[in-house]
Amino acid sequence: MLCSRLIQRTHLARAGLKSGILSSTMRLPVTSFSTTQPKKSSGDHVKMWTAERVVSLAQLPICVVPFIYTTPLTDAIFCTLAILHSHWGVEAIVVDYIRPSLFNGSTVIPNIAVSLVWALSAFTLGALYYFNYTDVGIINAIKMLWRL
Q: Among 52, 72, 74, 51, which Cα is nearest to 63's?
């Protein structure tokens, strides 16, 4: 397809068409191998990609610092970044594999699946915050497991 377009757009091809040497039937056919139409994307994906990378980089020190200096704040940051990172990963899987084309174009099931991901992430984050502030905290719980 690319070669045929390049050939058709060359100076010689244009000159041949203008002079009548090449007829329109002698042009190479343009074929497309795509089975779906591209759709306009919504949102700023560059900012989202940047946010995902910032969270991923922030997880490197936040996986070590709470074990050295354990406070409710370091527990909360650890839990927030872990759940945020997990949420984006699971959401990407759901969006990629539970897509409307699998359900004859209906967006009901994909929307329910994405909503369930949001609900699961919110519940998990809430449960971790609750555990952090009413019990020993997630980092101290991990330390207690290591002592066993």
A: 74
Predicted confidence (pLDDT) per residue in 81-136, tens digit: 999 999 999 999 999 999 898 898 889 999 999 999 999 999 999 999 999 999 99
Distance separating alpha carbons of residues 148 and 131, to the nearest angstrom: 20
Distances (CA, A) of 75 to 6, 43, 121, 146: 59, 31, 17, 17
DSSP 20: T
Helices 138-147, 72-97: axis angle to 10 degrees equals: 100
Model's pTM, two decimal places?
0.66
The token duo for 130 is 């609750």
Largest CA distance in the chain: 88
Which candidate, 59, 26, 138, places its Cα nearest to that of 146? 138
Residue where the block lists tokens 């970044």: 81
Q: Which of 82, 50, 45 is nearest to 63 (CA)?
A: 82
